Amino acid sequence: MADGNGHEPRIVAFLCRWCSYAGADLAGTSRIKYPPNIIPIRVPCSGRVDPAWVMEAFARGADGVFIGGCHPGDCHYVSGNYKARRRVTLLRKLLPQLGIDPRRLRLEWISATEGKRFAEVVTEFVEELKELGPMRAEEAAQDVR
Amino acid sequence: MPPRNPERIRAQKPRIGVFVCHCGHNIAGVVDVKRVAEQLSKYPGVVYATDYEYMCSDPGQELLKKAIREHRLNGVVVAACSPSMHEATFRRAAGEVDLNPYLVECANIREHCSWVHDPGEAATQKAITITRTMVEKVKGNMPLEPVEVSHKEKCLVVGGGIAGIQAALDVAEAGYEVILVEKSPTIGGHMAQLSETFPTLDCSQCILTPKMVEVERHPKIRLLVNSEVEEISGFIGNYRVRIRKKPSYVDPDLCNLCGECEKVCPVRVPNEFDRGLSERGAIYIPFPQAVPSTYTLDEETCLGIKPLICGKCAEVCEPGAIDFDMSEEIIEEEVGAVILATGYDLYETKALPEYSPDDPDVIDPLQFERLLSATGPTRGEIRRPSDGKVPKTVVFIKCAGSRDPELHKPYCSAICCMYTAKHALLYKHAVPDGRAIVFYIDIRAPGKGYEEFIHRVMEEDRVLYIRGKVAKVFREGDKLIVWGVDTLSGQRVEVEADLVVLAMAVVPPKGVEDLARTLRLSCLDENGFLKEAHPKLRPLETLAGGIFIAGAAQGPKDIPQAVTQGSGAAAKAIALLSAPTLTHSPEVAEVDEELCSGCRVCAPLCPYGAITVEETAQVNELLCEGCGTCVAACPSGALSLRNLEDSQVESMVEAALAELSPAREAVEVKGG
């Protein structure tokens, strides 16, 4: 794990149930393959994602955190995705101060019809995280806490 | 991080059962389901774990119920398909043996795992991890009871085409009030523009107008024309609707259809109903059988109403029906169900410049319908727009803009094969010595009597079908030259035509995005049509409870399909309106008043106005939809979302990232 060669990144994904979770379902129904590095957690809305969860995931050794919401204007709950966007913008500013590359946090808009896009985005994120190499989990945990 | 609401964490020791479904080969062919069950049986809080071929089957559900009883389970995780498929099934089964349904969760190891990964260790490990996260969730779940809500016994139908008309009539016949909203001055939709219908050649208006009249006369239907839905808010059974009704400046009760007003109107603009093939005044009636049966003054084309510039129409109106003081109305209604029947538009011909769309003799199929129609601009005589001559050679080009993923629409517009055959037949009947030539890619005729109709057109009416696409249409003197290829003989074809009809793709109507947005239907499909909850099994529902779809709003459809869907959506709405009470999810936000400082950060974030703050915040559980945006923003941790508390998610994150032995090692050894 130390040198990053062959490292399999671990990703926690918070997916809103109306768009991104359903998009991930559609990727499944359409049998579109993507790497198994992602563990999805279903939330009602990307606006439910507490920045503390993101930090918790990094502290516990996640190499990446993925937040999936509805496209702007399409939020089932009207505007939760905009709240998520604001929070992620702030988090991205905070992460470098803790020594975490902000590319490890990804916010994507994926609709329920975009199964293919879900698979593509996950594949791309896994590739990017492989290039970044493993998170130095212990250091991050110390910094976060 | 300590749980924010420690006193709410269940006092009972967890006794969780895990049921791993094979889903035949769907899961078991990729994931080692035995190992998933075995691994989970050792997981803290799990007292029973097993695997079974089909958990959703009756024996599968019996197995679940038996285990709940025998092992006194106080939580269940079914590792199977997406919760959107069978969460309700397993929750109901658990409820039958007195386990609170909200203590049952699905771990999605099919759509999110076995269907997207290759068989092997990594997929099995992921399935174990996903299931563990759901066990962690169930550990924190509280037993909940659904909230009972009353509902409005009224239905909104948006769109007055044939699908909307059918839906409105069926709901009204069942005894419920209906508000039918139509944006144009009359109901009838595209069906009113058609001449005859395939394959029976019924006169379209003759079969449609009785239904239109029925709508107008029905005591349970309130018809609002010139109206658009501006906003819909609320939830299943309780939607608040804001409708903007443009003034018609004519009192329909006084208008006697004499038509004197239009004769004196100095304005001449293209008539939309005739697709621009005729002209109308600023005051006009779209067609003689319009419902409501009245002239309408179109303020956009009138010389001026406020202030009044001309006023000639009012001078000649004997019954005094014209009222320039009418103004826009905002109508607010509360309804229990909504049926969207917003129909379709045609893809614009100018999208196909290679076919000379600006030439007056290159027309779209609805223009050809108007040429065929007895109420049309030529009284049913087929005369071409440029010079009024009877065309002796007509070329019909199918799939114009359809089935062309590179440049235009990828889908088949479904109705063009049939109406083109009908067009060619009606043309041959009207001009027996004329030539009708159809360029096609394939002929799709799957309806009742459709295939036979195509054969009739080809054989009895001697319409020439050429398999191949047309490359170019251009004018040369009096003629339109059509260059195409006959792909069956491999030869180039050149036709000198008098009239060309482009069977344009069926597209979603303008404004449907705005409607979808106000309804918070999170998705239109990739082509912009309204998306159904499930393409096979819930074709009339949307993901928003109580909002249904019918007709071409969902995708191209012919009349019988649109009528079927109108009736189907009506049945869905009636089932909802006739329910004694509805239930609202109890998985909503709640406030710990001791922790709340009354800071008011939450209230403006709520899109539903469900939070009010006096001393402390209060959540109205009927209005709260459970998005959790307020919870994530609460600085003092006083707000929580029932059954998705922060402490639960934190445990799920921990489980998602816990080192798995021997999984991680296996992956790393392989990789490194």
Features of this protein?
heterodimer; A: 145 residues; alpha/beta; Rossmann fold; four-stranded parallel beta sheet; 5 helices; globular; B: 672 residues; FAD/NAD(P)-binding domain; 4 domains; five-stranded parallel beta sheet; 18 helices; 34 strands; 28% helix; disordered N terminus; disordered C terminus
Short précis:
Chain A is of the alpha/beta class. Chain A is 41% helix and 16% strand.
Describe this structure in words.
The complex is a heterodimer of chains A (145) and B (672). Chain A has 145 residues and is of the alpha/beta class. Chain A has one domain: Rossmann fold, CATH 3.40.50. In chain A, 41% of the residues lie in helices and 16% in strands. Chain A has a 4-stranded parallel beta sheet with strand order 2-1-3-4, with helices on both faces. In chain A, strand 3, helix 3 and strand 4 form a beta-alpha-beta unit. The mean pLDDT of chain A is 90. Chain B is built from 18 helices and 34 strands. Chain B has a 5-stranded parallel beta sheet. A 5-stranded parallel beta sheet of chain B has the order 20-27-21-22-23. In chain B, strands 2-1-3-4 form a 4-stranded parallel beta sheet, with helices on both faces. In chain B, helix 7 runs parallel beside helix 15, helix 11 packs parallel to helix 12 and helix 12 packs parallel to helix 13. The radius of gyration of chain B is 31 Å and the shape is globular. The interface between A and B is large, with 56 and 55 residues.
**What would CATH call the class of the largest domain in chain B?**
Alpha Beta
Instruction: Output the number of helix runs of chain A.
Output: 5
Low-confidence stretches of chain A: none
Please state the second-level CATH architecture of the largest domain in chain B. 3-Layer(bba) Sandwich
Radius of gyration of chain A: 15 Å
The CATH class of chain A is Alpha Beta
Low-confidence stretches of chain B: 1-9, 661-672
Shape of chain A: globular
Radius of gyration from the alpha-carbon trace of chain B, in angstroms: 31 Å
**What separation lies between the terminal Cα atoms of chain A?**
23 Å
Oligomer: heterodimer
The SSE order of chain A reads: EHEHEHEHH
| Biggest β-sheet description of chain B | 5 strands, parallel
Structure classification of chain A: alpha/beta
How many β-strand runs of chain B?
A: 34
**Fraction of helical residues of chain A:** 40-55%
Number of domains of chain A: 1
Percent strand of chain B: 15-25%
Helix/strand/pairing category of chain B: alpha/beta
Broad shape of chain B: globular
CATH fold name of the largest domain in chain B: FAD/NAD(P)-binding domain
